[in-house]
Structure prediction request, 378 residues.
Amino acid sequence: VERVEFTGVHQFALRVLRDRGHRVTVKLDEVRQTFNRAWAQCEARATLQAIDTNVNYWRDEVSYVIKGRGLTRFEQYADLARAGRRRPLRLEQRQAVWQLYTDYERGLRERDLLDFDDVILRAEASLAQHPLSGIDAVIIDEAQDLSCAMVRMLHSVVGDRPDGLTLIGDGQQTIYPGGWNLAEAGVSVTGRGVVLGTNYRNTRQIAEFAAQVVAGDVYADIEGTARRGDATVLIPRSGPAPTATTFASIAEHDAALLRHVDALLQSGVNPGDIGVLCRTNRDALAVAASLRRSGHGVIELAAYIGRTAPLIKVGTIKRAKGLEFAQVLLARVQESLMVPVVAGLSDGEIERREIDRRELYVGMTRARDGLWVGVFSS
Prediction:
Protein backbone atom coordinates (compact mmCIF):
# COMPACT_ATOMS: atom_id res chain seq x y z
CA VAL A 1 0.00 0.00 0.00
CA GLU A 2 2.92 2.36 0.59
CA ARG A 3 3.66 2.18 -3.15
CA VAL A 4 0.27 3.65 -4.09
CA GLU A 5 -0.50 7.36 -4.03
CA PHE A 6 -3.99 8.88 -4.26
CA THR A 7 -4.11 12.48 -5.47
CA GLY A 8 -6.15 14.99 -7.42
CA VAL A 9 -4.92 16.05 -10.84
CA HIS A 10 -4.36 19.70 -9.95
CA GLN A 11 -2.63 18.66 -6.74
CA PHE A 12 -0.32 16.39 -8.72
CA ALA A 13 0.49 19.13 -11.26
CA LEU A 14 1.21 21.68 -8.52
CA ARG A 15 3.55 19.25 -6.78
CA VAL A 16 5.45 18.54 -10.00
CA LEU A 17 6.04 22.25 -10.54
CA ARG A 18 6.90 23.08 -6.94
CA ASP A 19 9.28 20.11 -6.64
CA ARG A 20 11.09 21.53 -9.65
CA GLY A 21 11.51 24.96 -8.12
CA HIS A 22 8.58 26.78 -9.69
CA ARG A 23 6.70 29.17 -7.43
CA VAL A 24 3.07 28.48 -8.31
CA THR A 25 0.02 29.94 -6.62
CA VAL A 26 -3.50 30.20 -8.02
CA LYS A 27 -5.35 33.27 -6.73
CA LEU A 28 -8.89 32.39 -7.70
CA ASP A 29 -10.51 35.74 -6.86
CA GLU A 30 -7.94 37.67 -8.89
CA VAL A 31 -8.24 35.19 -11.77
CA ARG A 32 -12.04 35.67 -11.85
CA GLN A 33 -11.63 39.44 -11.76
CA THR A 34 -9.19 39.24 -14.66
CA PHE A 35 -11.62 37.26 -16.79
CA ASN A 36 -14.50 39.59 -15.95
CA ARG A 37 -12.34 42.57 -16.88
CA ALA A 38 -11.40 40.93 -20.19
CA TRP A 39 -15.09 40.27 -20.88
CA ALA A 40 -16.08 43.86 -20.06
CA GLN A 41 -13.35 45.34 -22.27
CA CYS A 42 -13.44 42.82 -25.14
CA GLU A 43 -14.14 44.62 -28.43
CA ALA A 44 -15.89 41.52 -29.78
CA ARG A 45 -18.21 41.17 -26.76
CA ALA A 46 -21.29 42.31 -28.72
CA THR A 47 -20.82 39.43 -31.15
CA LEU A 48 -20.72 36.95 -28.29
CA GLN A 49 -23.62 38.52 -26.38
CA ALA A 50 -25.78 38.15 -29.48
CA ILE A 51 -25.25 34.39 -29.09
CA ASP A 52 -25.39 34.07 -25.29
CA THR A 53 -25.47 36.88 -22.73
CA ASN A 54 -24.30 34.56 -19.92
CA VAL A 55 -20.62 35.24 -19.31
CA ASN A 56 -20.23 31.75 -17.82
CA TYR A 57 -20.87 30.18 -21.23
CA TRP A 58 -17.86 32.01 -22.63
CA ARG A 59 -15.75 31.38 -19.52
CA ASP A 60 -16.39 27.65 -20.07
CA GLU A 61 -15.53 27.98 -23.77
CA VAL A 62 -12.16 29.53 -22.92
CA SER A 63 -11.39 27.19 -20.03
CA TYR A 64 -12.63 23.81 -21.24
CA VAL A 65 -12.53 24.07 -25.03
CA ILE A 66 -9.45 26.25 -25.63
CA LYS A 67 -7.18 26.10 -22.58
CA GLY A 68 -8.39 22.61 -21.64
CA ARG A 69 -6.83 21.43 -24.88
CA GLY A 70 -3.81 23.73 -24.74
CA LEU A 71 -4.63 25.47 -28.02
CA THR A 72 -2.21 28.26 -28.86
CA ARG A 73 -3.15 29.23 -32.44
CA PHE A 74 -6.49 30.34 -33.82
CA GLU A 75 -6.14 27.86 -36.68
CA GLN A 76 -6.41 25.04 -34.12
CA TYR A 77 -9.70 26.44 -32.84
CA ALA A 78 -11.16 27.57 -36.18
CA ASP A 79 -12.35 24.12 -37.29
CA LEU A 80 -12.41 22.31 -33.91
CA ALA A 81 -15.35 19.93 -33.52
CA ARG A 82 -16.16 21.21 -29.97
CA ALA A 83 -17.67 17.90 -28.88
CA GLY A 84 -20.44 18.32 -26.33
CA ARG A 85 -21.07 21.98 -27.14
CA ARG A 86 -24.49 22.22 -28.76
CA ARG A 87 -24.25 25.81 -29.95
CA PRO A 88 -22.49 26.00 -33.35
CA LEU A 89 -20.07 28.88 -33.93
CA ARG A 90 -19.29 30.39 -37.33
CA LEU A 91 -15.77 31.49 -38.21
CA GLU A 92 -16.31 35.15 -37.27
CA GLN A 93 -17.88 34.07 -33.97
CA ARG A 94 -14.90 31.89 -33.20
CA GLN A 95 -12.67 34.87 -33.96
CA ALA A 96 -14.62 36.80 -31.32
CA VAL A 97 -14.08 33.99 -28.79
CA TRP A 98 -10.38 33.96 -29.62
CA GLN A 99 -10.23 37.72 -29.03
CA LEU A 100 -11.74 37.20 -25.57
CA TYR A 101 -9.24 34.42 -24.89
CA THR A 102 -6.24 36.54 -25.91
CA ASP A 103 -7.49 39.51 -23.86
CA TYR A 104 -7.84 37.22 -20.83
CA GLU A 105 -4.36 35.74 -21.35
CA ARG A 106 -2.86 39.21 -21.64
CA GLY A 107 -4.56 40.21 -18.39
CA LEU A 108 -3.14 37.16 -16.60
CA ARG A 109 0.38 37.92 -17.82
CA GLU A 110 0.16 41.60 -16.87
CA ARG A 111 -0.89 40.64 -13.32
CA ASP A 112 1.53 37.70 -13.08
CA LEU A 113 -1.36 35.30 -12.48
CA LEU A 114 -2.00 31.64 -13.31
CA ASP A 115 -5.33 29.87 -13.51
CA PHE A 116 -5.71 26.14 -12.93
CA ASP A 117 -5.59 25.45 -16.68
CA ASP A 118 -2.15 27.11 -16.76
CA VAL A 119 -0.98 24.86 -13.92
CA ILE A 120 -1.84 21.76 -15.98
CA LEU A 121 -0.23 23.12 -19.15
CA ARG A 122 2.96 24.16 -17.35
CA ALA A 123 3.23 20.78 -15.66
CA GLU A 124 2.70 19.05 -19.01
CA ALA A 125 5.46 21.16 -20.59
CA SER A 126 7.81 20.45 -17.67
CA LEU A 127 7.20 16.70 -17.89
CA ALA A 128 7.84 16.78 -21.64
CA GLN A 129 11.23 18.40 -21.00
CA HIS A 130 12.17 16.34 -17.97
CA PRO A 131 10.18 13.08 -17.64
CA LEU A 132 9.20 11.96 -14.16
CA SER A 133 10.72 8.73 -12.86
CA GLY A 134 9.53 6.36 -10.18
CA ILE A 135 5.89 5.99 -11.31
CA ASP A 136 5.02 2.67 -12.95
CA ALA A 137 1.32 3.17 -13.62
CA VAL A 138 -1.37 5.86 -13.64
CA ILE A 139 -5.02 5.04 -12.98
CA ILE A 140 -7.48 7.82 -13.81
CA ASP A 141 -10.90 7.65 -12.20
CA GLU A 142 -13.77 9.92 -13.32
CA ALA A 143 -11.85 10.27 -16.59
CA GLN A 144 -14.84 11.86 -18.30
CA ASP A 145 -14.41 15.01 -16.19
CA LEU A 146 -10.73 15.58 -16.94
CA SER A 147 -9.65 17.99 -19.65
CA CYS A 148 -7.76 16.81 -22.71
CA ALA A 149 -4.59 18.48 -21.39
CA MET A 150 -4.93 16.69 -18.04
CA VAL A 151 -5.03 13.28 -19.73
CA ARG A 152 -2.09 14.22 -21.97
CA MET A 153 -0.08 15.28 -18.92
CA LEU A 154 -0.82 12.07 -17.00
CA HIS A 155 -0.21 9.92 -20.08
CA SER A 156 3.23 11.48 -20.47
CA VAL A 157 4.20 10.16 -17.03
CA VAL A 158 3.96 6.53 -18.17
CA GLY A 159 3.83 6.73 -21.96
CA ASP A 160 2.60 3.67 -23.83
CA ARG A 161 4.22 1.05 -21.61
CA PRO A 162 2.06 -2.06 -21.01
CA ASP A 163 -0.49 -1.45 -18.22
CA GLY A 164 0.87 2.04 -17.82
CA LEU A 165 -2.35 3.97 -18.22
CA THR A 166 -5.86 2.94 -17.18
CA LEU A 167 -8.83 5.24 -17.63
CA ILE A 168 -12.18 4.61 -15.95
CA GLY A 169 -15.08 6.85 -16.88
CA ASP A 170 -18.77 7.17 -17.58
CA GLY A 171 -19.85 9.73 -20.16
CA GLN A 172 -23.32 9.78 -18.65
CA GLN A 173 -21.79 11.35 -15.54
CA THR A 174 -20.01 14.19 -17.34
CA ILE A 175 -20.76 17.43 -15.50
CA TYR A 176 -18.40 19.80 -17.34
CA PRO A 177 -18.73 21.22 -20.88
CA GLY A 178 -16.31 21.01 -23.78
CA GLY A 179 -15.91 17.30 -24.38
CA TRP A 180 -12.92 15.77 -26.14
CA ASN A 181 -11.92 12.29 -27.25
CA LEU A 182 -8.93 10.09 -26.51
CA ALA A 183 -7.50 10.55 -29.99
CA GLU A 184 -7.09 14.29 -29.25
CA ALA A 185 -5.11 13.35 -26.14
CA GLY A 186 -2.86 11.01 -28.12
CA VAL A 187 -4.24 7.91 -26.40
CA SER A 188 -5.44 4.83 -28.24
CA VAL A 189 -7.48 2.07 -26.59
CA THR A 190 -8.31 0.25 -29.80
CA GLY A 191 -8.96 -3.37 -28.93
CA ARG A 192 -8.41 -2.67 -25.21
CA GLY A 193 -11.60 -0.85 -24.23
CA VAL A 194 -14.00 -2.68 -21.93
CA VAL A 195 -17.61 -1.78 -21.12
CA LEU A 196 -18.42 -2.51 -17.49
CA GLY A 197 -21.95 -3.91 -17.71
CA THR A 198 -22.85 -4.71 -14.09
CA ASN A 199 -23.97 -2.11 -11.55
CA TYR A 200 -23.01 -3.34 -8.07
CA ARG A 201 -23.70 -0.08 -6.22
CA ASN A 202 -27.34 0.84 -6.80
CA THR A 203 -30.52 -1.12 -6.47
CA ARG A 204 -32.49 -1.64 -9.66
CA GLN A 205 -35.10 0.88 -8.45
CA ILE A 206 -32.52 3.63 -7.82
CA ALA A 207 -30.77 3.03 -11.15
CA GLU A 208 -34.03 3.12 -13.10
CA PHE A 209 -35.23 6.25 -11.29
CA ALA A 210 -31.94 8.07 -12.00
CA ALA A 211 -31.96 6.96 -15.64
CA GLN A 212 -35.35 8.60 -16.15
CA VAL A 213 -33.88 11.99 -15.27
CA VAL A 214 -31.45 11.87 -18.21
CA ALA A 215 -33.60 9.84 -20.58
CA GLY A 216 -33.09 11.07 -24.13
CA ASP A 217 -30.17 13.35 -23.28
CA VAL A 218 -27.12 13.00 -25.51
CA TYR A 219 -23.64 12.53 -24.07
CA ALA A 220 -20.24 11.52 -25.41
CA ASP A 221 -18.43 8.47 -24.10
CA ILE A 222 -14.73 8.45 -23.30
CA GLU A 223 -13.89 7.57 -26.90
CA GLY A 224 -15.93 10.51 -28.24
CA THR A 225 -18.94 8.54 -29.49
CA ALA A 226 -22.35 10.19 -28.99
CA ARG A 227 -24.69 8.01 -26.94
CA ARG A 228 -28.07 8.00 -25.23
CA GLY A 229 -29.09 6.05 -22.13
CA ASP A 230 -27.21 3.99 -19.59
CA ALA A 231 -25.07 1.11 -20.87
CA THR A 232 -25.55 -0.97 -17.70
CA VAL A 233 -27.13 -4.34 -18.52
CA LEU A 234 -27.24 -6.09 -15.14
CA ILE A 235 -28.30 -4.79 -11.71
CA PRO A 236 -28.33 -7.66 -9.20
CA ARG A 237 -29.68 -5.76 -6.16
CA SER A 238 -33.24 -4.66 -5.43
CA GLY A 239 -34.79 -2.34 -2.83
CA PRO A 240 -37.49 0.25 -2.09
CA ALA A 241 -38.52 2.75 -4.75
CA PRO A 242 -37.01 6.23 -4.43
CA THR A 243 -39.32 9.05 -3.41
CA ALA A 244 -39.47 12.53 -4.93
CA THR A 245 -41.68 15.20 -3.36
CA THR A 246 -42.26 18.76 -4.52
CA PHE A 247 -42.60 21.54 -1.95
CA ALA A 248 -43.96 25.04 -2.33
CA SER A 249 -41.23 26.62 -0.18
CA ILE A 250 -37.72 25.97 1.07
CA ALA A 251 -39.00 25.99 4.65
CA GLU A 252 -41.44 23.15 3.92
CA HIS A 253 -38.72 21.29 2.05
CA ASP A 254 -36.19 21.55 4.88
CA ALA A 255 -38.74 20.47 7.50
CA ALA A 256 -39.54 17.37 5.43
CA LEU A 257 -35.83 16.64 4.98
CA LEU A 258 -35.34 16.70 8.76
CA ARG A 259 -38.28 14.36 9.25
CA HIS A 260 -36.83 11.92 6.72
CA VAL A 261 -33.42 12.00 8.43
CA ASP A 262 -35.08 11.32 11.78
CA ALA A 263 -37.02 8.40 10.29
CA LEU A 264 -33.84 6.89 8.86
CA LEU A 265 -32.05 7.16 12.19
CA GLN A 266 -35.00 5.66 14.06
CA SER A 267 -34.96 2.71 11.63
CA GLY A 268 -31.36 1.97 12.63
CA VAL A 269 -29.41 3.65 9.82
CA ASN A 270 -25.98 4.85 10.98
CA PRO A 271 -25.65 8.66 10.64
CA GLY A 272 -22.34 8.14 8.83
CA ASP A 273 -24.18 6.22 6.10
CA ILE A 274 -26.38 9.21 5.22
CA GLY A 275 -25.35 11.70 2.54
CA VAL A 276 -27.27 14.94 1.97
CA LEU A 277 -26.31 16.40 -1.39
CA CYS A 278 -27.06 19.76 -3.00
CA ARG A 279 -26.11 21.39 -6.29
CA THR A 280 -24.65 24.56 -4.74
CA ASN A 281 -22.34 25.33 -1.84
CA ARG A 282 -24.87 27.84 -0.51
CA ASP A 283 -27.61 25.23 -0.29
CA ALA A 284 -25.23 22.68 1.25
CA LEU A 285 -24.19 25.14 3.99
CA ALA A 286 -27.82 26.04 4.70
CA VAL A 287 -28.90 22.39 4.97
CA ALA A 288 -25.91 21.58 7.20
CA ALA A 289 -26.85 24.46 9.49
CA SER A 290 -30.46 23.25 9.64
CA LEU A 291 -29.35 19.74 10.62
CA ARG A 292 -27.05 21.09 13.33
CA ARG A 293 -29.81 23.26 14.79
CA SER A 294 -31.89 20.08 15.07
CA GLY A 295 -29.15 18.42 17.10
CA HIS A 296 -27.62 16.22 14.39
CA GLY A 297 -23.89 15.70 14.06
CA VAL A 298 -22.69 16.81 10.62
CA ILE A 299 -19.46 16.75 8.65
CA GLU A 300 -19.22 18.75 5.45
CA LEU A 301 -17.77 16.91 2.47
CA ALA A 302 -15.29 19.75 1.97
CA ALA A 303 -13.69 18.64 5.26
CA TYR A 304 -14.24 14.89 4.90
CA ILE A 305 -11.03 12.86 4.52
CA GLY A 306 -12.47 9.35 4.72
CA ARG A 307 -12.45 8.75 8.46
CA THR A 308 -15.40 6.73 9.73
CA ALA A 309 -17.59 8.69 12.16
CA PRO A 310 -21.29 8.76 13.13
CA LEU A 311 -21.81 12.09 11.35
CA ILE A 312 -24.22 12.91 8.53
CA LYS A 313 -22.26 13.96 5.46
CA VAL A 314 -23.44 17.13 3.69
CA GLY A 315 -22.00 18.72 0.59
CA THR A 316 -22.32 19.40 -3.12
CA ILE A 317 -22.85 16.73 -5.72
CA LYS A 318 -19.48 17.63 -7.22
CA ARG A 319 -17.82 16.92 -3.85
CA ALA A 320 -19.65 13.56 -3.70
CA LYS A 321 -18.25 12.26 -6.98
CA GLY A 322 -16.47 8.99 -6.28
CA LEU A 323 -18.30 8.53 -2.97
CA GLU A 324 -21.35 6.45 -2.09
CA PHE A 325 -23.81 6.34 0.79
CA ALA A 326 -26.36 3.80 1.99
CA GLN A 327 -28.96 6.58 2.00
CA VAL A 328 -28.90 9.74 -0.11
CA LEU A 329 -31.08 12.80 0.32
CA LEU A 330 -30.86 15.00 -2.77
CA ALA A 331 -31.91 18.38 -1.43
CA ARG A 332 -33.31 21.60 -2.89
CA VAL A 333 -33.64 20.31 -6.46
CA GLN A 334 -35.17 22.74 -8.93
CA GLU A 335 -38.43 21.44 -10.34
CA SER A 336 -37.42 22.38 -13.89
CA LEU A 337 -34.57 19.85 -13.80
CA MET A 338 -36.90 16.95 -13.03
CA VAL A 339 -38.82 17.24 -16.29
CA PRO A 340 -37.72 16.66 -19.92
CA VAL A 341 -36.22 19.58 -21.83
CA VAL A 342 -39.09 21.69 -23.17
CA ALA A 343 -39.39 23.23 -26.60
CA GLY A 344 -38.32 26.81 -27.12
CA LEU A 345 -34.96 26.65 -25.34
CA SER A 346 -31.84 27.81 -27.15
CA ASP A 347 -29.02 25.39 -27.93
CA GLY A 348 -26.99 26.93 -25.12
CA GLU A 349 -29.86 26.53 -22.64
CA ILE A 350 -30.36 22.90 -23.68
CA GLU A 351 -26.64 22.22 -23.24
CA ARG A 352 -26.67 23.74 -19.75
CA ARG A 353 -29.85 21.86 -18.83
CA GLU A 354 -28.35 18.54 -19.94
CA ILE A 355 -25.22 19.15 -17.86
CA ASP A 356 -27.33 20.07 -14.83
CA ARG A 357 -29.50 16.97 -15.25
CA ARG A 358 -26.42 14.74 -15.53
CA GLU A 359 -25.26 16.29 -12.26
CA LEU A 360 -28.55 15.21 -10.66
CA TYR A 361 -27.98 11.75 -12.12
CA VAL A 362 -24.57 11.66 -10.43
CA GLY A 363 -26.12 12.65 -7.11
CA MET A 364 -28.86 10.02 -7.33
CA THR A 365 -26.45 7.24 -8.23
CA ARG A 366 -24.39 7.86 -5.05
CA ALA A 367 -27.19 5.96 -3.23
CA ARG A 368 -26.80 2.25 -2.50
CA ASP A 369 -30.06 1.41 -0.74
CA GLY A 370 -32.36 4.42 -0.47
CA LEU A 371 -32.96 7.72 -2.28
CA TRP A 372 -35.08 10.72 -1.24
CA VAL A 373 -35.37 13.72 -3.58
CA GLY A 374 -36.65 17.04 -2.30
CA VAL A 375 -37.89 19.31 -5.09
CA PHE A 376 -39.01 22.91 -4.78
CA SER A 377 -41.01 24.91 -7.28
CA SER A 378 -39.39 28.25 -8.02
Notes: Strands lie at 138-140, 165-167, 218-220, 226-228, 243-247, 274-278, 298-300, 312-316, 325-334, 367-376. The longest strand covers residues 325-334. The chain is about 40% helix and 15% strand. The first helix runs from residue 9 to 19.
